[in-house]
Amino acid sequence: MSRIENRTFAELQVGDSASIVRTLTHRDIELFAVMSGDVNPAHVDEEFAKSDMFHHVIAHGMWGGALISTVLGTQLPGPGSIYVGQSLRFRHPVAVGDTITVTVKVRDKFEEKMRVLLDCVATNQHGEVVIHGTAEVVAPREKISREKVGLPEVRLLRRGEHYRQLIDKAKGLAPIRTAIVHPVDGVSLLAAVEAARAKLILPVLIGPEPKIRAAAQQARLDVSEYEIMHTPHSHAAAELAVAMARELHVDALMQGALAGEELMHFVDCSAGLRTERRFSHVCVADVPTYPRPLFITDAVVNIYPTVEEKRDIVQNAIDLLHALDVATPKVAILSAQETISAHLSSTLDAAVLCKMAERGQITGAVLDGPLGFDSAVSEQAAKSKGIVSPVAGQANIFVVPDLEAGNMLTEQLRQLSDALVVGLIVGGKAPIIISRTDDMVARLAACTLALLLVRFKKSFAAKLTNAEVPDATAYQAASCN
Asked: Residue 44 is part of which domain span?
């Protein structure tokens, strides 16, 4: 194992030198920004940097200073040295791709306090001096030689990055009128207000007006510009919201401070919201370590779906992906094993669904299954099992066997993979946002999903009918009797 060794004060001679060479990467800049907290846009914002004096992202000045510290602490004098002072002048910016050579050289020694003065110079690949200065250290008295300490692996993860890309897709689209059901807490109101500011929705706040206004005041939110429809309680709010969606007065519903089951009770009771499809839930998981979002279905609505019901679940998810401009989604039908067995019903369902796709009963995607989750997310895992599949390692949509499996999968991603998770109930006339999370990017992503799906469906309907969807002229309260 490689060792790290110092040079004692007695060993040092004027003129002794040591160097290191580093090539600057984007990762170096990001790591330094994370460590220091210096998020000056000249270093971390490419769009901003284009307009500054250098016209590109440059390294933090002290990134080069840190390299000088590295030489002093590991080579000359090395372990046991005590930094006393440093003066630096920065001559040229350092850009991504520049190779920097840092050299320290002993200028003088001071016996009385064991101090050493060193010249410090950093040059780029063109021989230009980018940093120069002097450093003063207390040199070690005793010889130190030790094995190098292994450092932990550092991974830079951007939570919500897939969601941000998704939100960008909605730029320029008209916001959708959305009923916020029983928004009597700060989380619900803040989500509605922020989505409205982002031009994703036009919120209609439905619930007890005094409670809505009290929650807004407590959260310091101005809701004066938004329509408020008073109802006495959450049941009435859900009933009215569903009726408005049925009569096309709103395009989407969003869960407020009420249970998802309470809202879905009135949705299920309203024949006017149903289509020929079954309602299903699509969970969108933004996993920082995975290159694209995972669309998992169904982890909320259908407990133990039949294969016919799974057909609707799959097609609903495919349609959502089409709305996100994924022309041919790849669908993994998940099971505990990849071989078909009469003893494991999920493998039989997977085989039937794939045959349905071959026969045109499921359209617009490539299906394969049964697949284990590992094979669905990793081509290498599939190859190690001898699986040849057009979906393995490339899946967009993950169809779980039942609600229990889906719930456990999404919670594992959330708790162990630092994933953000939002969801949408689809298959009806209006999408239903039932995600309640404190992460605002996730809430905006959920609203974006609803917006893109509504606009896609309206565009598709207009092409079929060549006519505008008619507006209803009056509300008609839904009844669950």
From this structure: 3-147
